[in-house]
Write a structure and sequence with these properties.
Low-confidence stretches: none
Radius of gyration: 15 Å
Distance between the termini: 34 Å
Number of helices: 7
Structural class: alpha/beta
Shape: globular
Strand order of the largest sheet: 5-4-1-6-7-8
Largest sheet: 6 strands, parallel
Strand content: 5-15%
Mean pLDDT: 90
Number of strands: 8
Length: 179
């Protein structure tokens, strides 16, 4: 492990948990057994922007039938939902994408995320993550889950690599649906 800014610039694959990271962890269950979640628009924009700039984005989460609608809107292609063995999914994903652990950022918020976080070069978490996850992280966002923590880390990776928007750049538009 080296300098944080140098290490975050190595990231090519951003892996996210959903409940407690992309959302505030609140879940409404419909009579049909579907989960309704609330997502932060700025997180969605940052993910869509990163995808359009060539970054690999992946989701590894324990639950998520209806979740795939949102992820498809953003353009996320690597989705491991209803995943009970996150470490196996992470290893499969890294092999598919062709990255080393040093090139992976994993953002999680609870105990099931600790093992995969220990396997990557850049383990990070939201401000309201479980204490054990905070201790396992190299970076703790100032933002809580579902309140911009994803935008925070995506923007940091892209800035470190020189890929974030700069004055004079042509803005990459994303559709309203992707926000």
């Amino acid at each position: 492990m080296g300098n944080f800014k140098e290490d975050i610039a190595k990231v090519r694959l951003i892996v996210l948990d959903v409940d407690g990271v992309m959302t505030d962890g609140g879940i409404t269950v419909t009579p049909e057994g579907e989960f309704i979640r609330k997502f932060h628009a700025k997180d969605g924009y940052a993910l869509s922007y990163a995808l359009r700039r060539g970054y690999e984005i992946a989701i590894i989460t324990g639950r998520g039938r209806s979740l795939e609608v949102r992820l498809n809107m953003l353009g996320v292609k690597h989705i491991y939902s209803n995943c009970m063995h996150k470490i196996e999914a992470l290893h499969d994903l890294m092999q598919k994408v062709g990255v080393t652990p040093e090139e992976v950022l994993y953002m999680g918020d609870d105990i099931p995320d600790i093992e995969p976080m220990q396997q990557v070069g850049m383990p990070v978490c939201p401000a309201d993550a479980a204490t054990e996850v905070i201790e396992a992280s190299r970076y703790v966002s100032q933002f809580k889950g579902g309140e911009g923590c994803v935008r925070d880390v995506v923007e940091q990776v892209m800035r470190a690599r020189g890929d974030w928007y700069k004055p004079g750049d042509k803005a990459i538009a994303v559709t309203t649906a992707s926000r």
